[in-house]
Amino acid sequence: MSARPEHGDRWKPASADPQGQTPVHTAVSSAGRSDTAAHHPTDNHREPDLWDAIFAKENLLAALRRVEANRGAPGVDGMTTEELRPWIAQNWPRIWAELDAGTYRPAPVRRVTIPKPNGGERILGVPRVLDRLIQQAIAQALTPVFDPHFSGASFGFRPGRSAHQAVKVGRRAIEDGNCWAVDLDLDKFFDRVNHDALMARVTRRVEDKRVLKLIRRYLEAGIMADGTVLASEEGTPQGSPLSPLLSNIMLDDLDRELFKRGHRFVRYADDVMVFVRSERAASRVLGSITTFIETRLKLKVNREKSKVSSAFKVSLLGFGYYRPGGKGPVSIRIDRKAVKRLKREVRRLTSRSWGVSMEHRLEKLGRFTTGWVAYFKLADSSWTFKQLDEWTRRRLRQVRWIEWANANNRNRMVRRLGYLMPDGARIIAGRHKWKASRSRGMSIALDNAYWDAQGYKSFQGLWQRLRTA
Question: pTM of whole model > 0.70?
Answer without folding.
Answer: yes
